[in-house]
């Protein structure tokens, strides 16, 4: 399949002109249009440009604007950059590419804004150190300048010394000269003081001087050159009746020795983060490895992986808002959820020191849908949050008639404990207010075994998650048996769990016992009443694992790095879209009684029933409700109790082939005996309500306003911050995967091979 073409408007020979608002325009020169796509190589593209413009492709520099951003130029220096540009411009009609020969690049660089990787919000101003060698950055020197970025500066922003130096003057020119026009003079406007401080920082580096703040608050910033007696000054304040910041006074004259290079060029993780944040915004998957390579190439600063990863975290926070501030916004955020979605539950708890403890969310649309058309079946599970403050998400999901995921409630807690599960279940019970007996498919560890009967008492059935049981069985027994033996034990364990009749269940147990009495004892002690289909008293509809909500966990994994309010709102948006999509889909279904998937299942059973023979009511039947059905086996169907001794009818909610043979024999419709939860009507009732947007979530995050009087102040939880480096994710293995143990071919023992066998060494 051909890739989409993008028209590259290639311009050269002109010059960049900076407008008053900081945007950039390209004036003069020649232009050519070239079709490009993902299959176009950078070498071929440069060769065609060299032929059109008449200069060597080896010395040219390529730059382009991101759509809608005329202030930032991206440098294309390698084939990966070229592919990114094509990919990013795929939805646009064209992309402007500026072709600069080497000499023109040096001449025009002072008129260009910072490249994407050079935008910064750090407010300290220092001068680069220029010397020979490579830049080496000590890991402990990537310091936290969060307070500086937020404007909480000391009287003098003197830079802290760092144990690295700039190695290449060319890099210094590239990183510094492009910022010469970051400050243009009186009447220049900025969107915020942070943006002004950012421009001032770049300007000072480009012009080779340091500065200190005379005044630095939310109303006015006044700065002077740090050199004694130098008249350079600048003052900026808020433009009356607007939120804009305007330069009111500026004396651009320096009498100090600005060309003198001073020590202490500080590369904090905040500085690097602010440099890469625009590129991270355009490319969310910007990898730490690529960050380190780009910083090295653009600025001559060498970062290791951990430093680049930390810088990415800072950049993400600058883009998404403060994690700390998100917690302080929780009270108003919960209130907005309840206002925009009446009937919803959004509550939180804090500890005695006002630090965040836990948050529970259940939207009215989910609550109503569960009551109106959902089976009394819930899956309880947890998902780790690898966010800045970590934590765990507790989730209750249900299956719709098509076995699609239907999130009912979720909570953010500090850890998975019995106390947190009890709190979650108490709020879930209050939200649902459902009189039905609910079957919970859940783990039996981490407090759930105790929490469920404590909250729901006799109004529930607890079906143990088969995956967790199998994992525990494997962990407890793998040291005693070979890989092959464990595989047979697990296969028989699954057979026992899925068996619908007691005979098959006990047969599987005997198979386990023949392999190992210890394994048999383990299975008996694991309370089969809670996991074996043949013994379980509730209705789990053949759902054996609590990890039903895989789609919801993928939503969590996409949003868990966001601040807490944005993460919850992202999940809300996913839920809103999911409900709307299924509303639309169900309206397009062909008119049937059951949903499409269940229609297929029922018709399959109807086909099987045609080969079966039904006898007269069973001789033991008191009310003529028991029938004998003959096929490959003889089965007894109790039509009045909607039961068959094969147990599939009770297990699935749809009549089995034996039951359908009886139903047709008594001249009734199979649809009369299907569970109402599988009807199109119930499905549409589940998705009848919609989830409404919660307005101004991002604005709340960026707001500087303190909490209103009377509103609880929430601070981040006192948990361990995310460790440096790549987050370690737990890999979930398939149910049938067992790690093979070493087995010695000499003594048949486990845990070693023939080469290290002690028995062989004794011979």
UniProtKB/TrEMBL annotation:
Organism: Arabidopsis suecica (Swedish thale-cress)
UniProt keyword Transferase, yes or no: no
Pfam families: DBD_Tnp_Mut, MULE, PB1-like, SWIM
The keyword Zinc-finger belongs to this UniProt entry's keyword annotation: yes
Sequence ranges assigned to domain SWIM-type in this UniProt record: 635-667
Keyword set, alphabetical order: Metal-binding, Zinc, Zinc-finger
InterPro entries: MULE_transposase_dom, PB1-like_dom_pln, PB1_dom, Transposase_MuDR, Znf_PMZ, Znf_SWIM
Name of the protein described by the UniProt record: Transposase MuDR plant
Any GO molecular function: zinc ion binding
SMART domains assigned: PB1, ZnF_PMZ
Residue span of region Disordered: 704-732
Biased composition annotated in UniProt, kind: Pro residues: 715-726
């Amino acid at each position: 399949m051909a890739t989409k073409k993008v028209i590259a408007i290639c311009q050269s020979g002109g010059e960049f002109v900076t407008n008053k608002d900081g945007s950039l325009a390209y004036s003069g020169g020649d232009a050519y249009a070239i079709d490009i796509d993902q299959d176009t190589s950078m070498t071929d593209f440069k060769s065609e440009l060299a032929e059109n413009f008449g200069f060597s492709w080896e010395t040219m520099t390529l730059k382009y604007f991101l759509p809608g951003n005329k202030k930032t130029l991206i440098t294309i220096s390698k084939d990966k950059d070229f592919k990114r540009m094509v990919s990013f411009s795929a939805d646009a009609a064209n992309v402007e590419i500026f072709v600069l020969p080497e000499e023109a690049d040096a001449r025009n660089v002072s008129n260009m804004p910072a490249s994407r990787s050079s935008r910064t919000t750090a407010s300290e101003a220092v001068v680069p150190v220029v010397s020979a060698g490579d830049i080496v950055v000590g890991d402990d020197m990537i310091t936290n300048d969060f307070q500086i970025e937020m404007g909480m500066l000391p009287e003098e922003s003197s830079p802290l010394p760092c144990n690295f130096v700039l190695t290449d003057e060319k890099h210094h020119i590239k990183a510094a000269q492009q910022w010469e026009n970051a400050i243009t003079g009186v009447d220049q406007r900025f969107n915020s003081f942070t943006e002004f401080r950012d421009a001032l920082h770049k300007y000072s580096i480009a012009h080779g001087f340091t500065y200190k703040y005379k005044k630095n608050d939310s109303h006015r910033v006044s700065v002077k050159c740090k050199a004694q007696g130098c008249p350079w000054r600048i003052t900026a304040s808020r433009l009356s009746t607007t939120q804009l910041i305007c330069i009111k006074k500026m004396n651009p004259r320096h009498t100090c020795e600005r060309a003198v290079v001073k020590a202490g060029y500080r590369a904090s993780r905040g500085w690097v983060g602010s440099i890469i944040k625009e590129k991270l915004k355009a490319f969310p998957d910007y990898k730490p490895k690529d960050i380190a390579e780009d910083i090295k190439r653009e600025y001559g600063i060498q970062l290791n992986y951990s430093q680049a990863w930390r810088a990415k975290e800072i950049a993400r926070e600058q883009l998404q808002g403060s994690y700390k501030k998100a917690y302080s916004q929780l009270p108003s955020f919960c209130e907005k959820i309840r206002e925009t979605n009446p009937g919803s539950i959004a509550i939180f708890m804090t500890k005695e020191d006002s630090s965040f403890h836990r948050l529970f969310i259940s939207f009215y649309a989910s609550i109503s849908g569960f009551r109106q058309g959902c089976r009394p079946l819930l899956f309880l599970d947890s998902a780790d949050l690898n966010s800045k403050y970590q934590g765990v998400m507790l989730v209750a999901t249900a299956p719709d008639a098509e076995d699609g995921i239907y999130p009912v409630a979720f909570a953010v807690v500090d850890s998975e404990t019995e106390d947190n599960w009890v709190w979650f279940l108490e709020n879930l019970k209050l939200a649902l207010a459902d009189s039905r007996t609910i079957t919970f498919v859940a783990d039996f560890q981490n407090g759930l075994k105790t929490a469920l009967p404590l909250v729901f008492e006799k109004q529930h059935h607890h079906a143990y998650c088969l995956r967790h049981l199998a994992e525990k069985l494997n962990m407890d027994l793998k040291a005693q048996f070979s890989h092959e033996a464990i595989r047979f034990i697990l296969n028989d364990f699954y057979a026992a769990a899925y068996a619908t009749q007691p005979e098959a269940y006990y047969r599987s147990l005997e198979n386990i016992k023949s392999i190992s009495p210890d394994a048999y004892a383990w299975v008996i002690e694991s309370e089969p009443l809670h996991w074996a289909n043949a013994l379980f008293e509730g209705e789990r509809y053949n759902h054996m694992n609590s990890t039903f909500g895989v789609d919801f966990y993928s939503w969590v994994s996409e949003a868990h790095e966001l601040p807490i309010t944005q993460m919850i709102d992202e999940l809300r948006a996913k839920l809103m879209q999911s409900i709307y999509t299924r509303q639309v889909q169900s309206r397009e279904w062909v008119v049937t009684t059951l949903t499409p998937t269940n229609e297929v299942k029922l018709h399959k059973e109807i086909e099987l029933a045609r080969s079966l023979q039904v006898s007269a009511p069973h001789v033991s039947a008191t009310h003529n409700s028991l029938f004998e059905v003959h096929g490959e086996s003889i089965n007894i169907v109790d039509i009045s109790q909607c039961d068959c001794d094969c147990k599939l009818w009770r297990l699935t909610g749809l009549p089995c082939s034996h039951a359908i043979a009886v139903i047709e024999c008594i001249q009734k419709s199979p649809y009369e005996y299907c569970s109402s939860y599988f009807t199109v009507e119930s499905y549409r009732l589940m998705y009848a309500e919609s989830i409404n947007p919660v307005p101004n979530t991002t604005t709340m995050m960026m707001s500087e306003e303190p909490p209103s009087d009377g509103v609880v102040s929430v601070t981040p939880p006192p948990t361990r911050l995310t460790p440096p480096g790549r987050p370690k994710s737990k890999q979930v293995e398939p149910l049938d995967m067992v790690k093979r143990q070493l087995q010695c071919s000499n003594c048949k023992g486990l845990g070693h091979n023939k080469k290290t066998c002690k028995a062989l060494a004794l011979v």
